[in-house]
Amino acid sequence: MSDCPCGSGKSFDTCCSPIISGAARASGPEALMRSRYSAFATGAAGFLSESLHPDHRHDHDEAATRRWAANAQWLGLEIVSSEAGEEEGRVEFIATFKEKGLVRHHHELSTFRREGESWYYVDGTMVLPETQVHETPKVGRNAPCPCGSGKKYKKCCGS
Questions:
Q1: Rounded to an integer, what distance in angstroms lies between the CA atom of residue 44 and that of residue 21?
Q2: Which residue ranges in the chain fall short of pLDDT 50?
Q3: d(Cα 158, Cα 34) in Å, to the nearest integer?
Q4: What is the reported pLDDT for 1?
Q5: What's the whole-model pTM score?
Q6: Which CATH number fits domain 12-129: 2.60.40.420, 3.40.640.10, 3.10.450.50, 3.20.20.70?
Q7: Is the alpha carbon torsion for 92, 98, 103, 104 positive or negative?
Q8: Torsion region of 101: left, alpha or beta (phi above 0 gives left; psi -120 to 50 gives alpha)
Q9: Which of 91, 81, 137 is nearest to 113 (CA)?
């Protein structure tokens, strides 16, 4: 019995495997998101197609998804936030994976919709990092160093 790739702390057999295999339905958007991540990690590309909302399957490339899932090493899933209504829900997550030797972070806000008894992934938007604004003015290379040493910035703290 191995830990579930989704990071829930449960075993894969009791967490995401029943959802991926079709033996159980996802209880909500977060459970579906976790099982979709686990499907990437275990190479279950068919589930990724099945869990996509029927209105959005027309342009889904299962072969490309299968290749991407197989060529990446899936390192972890962090659920940032999750909200579920009766018919729609959203999950913000960060999936960490290694591809071509580089560790990457996929930060997405996903939308899910319930049709009948089943939840489906609708779409997602990338969450961009916030712009950082520096509060202090920029120190020029030839300006006196702000540390008070009396040296030029480029010869002191700027080197």
A1: 9
A2: none
A3: 46
A4: 58
A5: 0.79
A6: 3.10.450.50
A7: negative
A8: left
A9: 91
